[in-house]
Amino acid sequence: MVSGPSDIAPAVADPLALKILVAGGFGVGKTTLVGAVSEIRSLQTEERLTEAGRPVDDTSGVAAKRTTTVAMDFGRITISDALVLYLFGTPGQERFWFLWDELAQGAIGAVVLADTRRLADSFAAIDFFESRGLPFAVGVNCFDGATRYPPDAVRAALDLDPDIPVVLCDARVRESAREALVAVVEHALRRSAEARTAVT
Amino acid sequence: MTPGWFDEDAGPVVRPYAMTRGRTRASGEERLDLIALVTALIGGAEELPADVALPGGQGLAPEHAEILYRCRRASESVAELATGLDLPVGVVRVLISDLLETGLVRISRPIPAAQLPDENILREVIDGLRAL
Q: Where in the sequence is the domain holding A167, given as residue range(s)?
């Protein structure tokens, strides 16, 4: 111990940290959504190429390079003195999926952003969260100029279970981005309540 | 200063892992979660004690001091510290584990992955988001 007990700040309980992931295809608005509700920052992770992109990266001629840098968006929302919520924008490219496993661990859930002009881009994220049993909601980012479809049409097109929330949103607008996050947490809460009643 | 063969245009000549003395893994057995919260145990002191040595005998690097400075009043997550110091997460994990071993920081780990957050906490998150 470096300083005496009297120098130490009063013992306040550490806040609880929680996270929600924001996933979806490239250019679907993940960064915009995280930025709409929190101060956005970019995080660099260094990953070993053997795990990250062996089939993708041709490293012949760069024998010494064994790691690659992956950038991820993240933001912090301080809910209260006792609760901090972090948002992580998952890297869009499939070659970085090994990162998703770490991100998904312990997460409340995920928002999968979808663009109705390129719905297929969100299949991968939906499959990932379904297979891991992580609660998620689909946020249909209503881009200017894109045709609006009712949530049920999107649900059918994505072949989603009836309990998965589908919300129309504008990732640029704070209130709208916030509602997409609320939809995930409410879904996680319902799941938790169902699991509890199933046990008792 | 003796003129070297490189100048500022050469960019940084110290690779990030030089400040961890080449270590790419933290000494602790489990990997620090991105949202593990780090709190400095140096109280309100702006100056670091001069005689602090890391387990290997080395003194603190400026980056160690920067971490302590950033989380001296309120805790910061591993992810926030990495962006604050503009360093890759792997480097920051090693630096934090040095500080942990020296007893200069406290770490609060998130809820274990197998455990869902309490329903009351989820309700609190919903209310908090709505109040944004």
A: 14-199
pLDDT at position B68 is 93
Residue A24's CATH number:
3.40.50.300
| Residue bearing tokens 């869902």 | B116
Residues of A in contact with B88 (CB under 8 A): 44-46, 69
At B59-84, the pLDDT tens digits run 888 999 999 999 988 899 999 999 99
Test A41 with B129 for CB contact under 8 angstroms: no
Dihedral pair phi/psi, residue A74, rounded to 5°: -150, 160
Residue predicted with more confidence, B69 or A63: B69
Residues 6+ apart with CB under 8 A from A28: A92, A113, A114, A115, A118, A121, A122, A141
Torsion angle defined by CA atoms of residues B16, B31, B113 and A186, in that order, rounded to the nearest 10 degrees: -20
CB-CB: which of B45, B82, B125 is closest to A83? B125
Residue B50: per-residue pLDDT: 62
Binned at pLDDT 50, 70 and 90, residue A10 comes out as very low
Q: Please state the domain extents for chain B.
A: 12-130
CA distance A14 to chain B (A): 7
Domain count, chain A: 1
| Interface contact flag, B129 A182, Cβ < 8 Å | yes
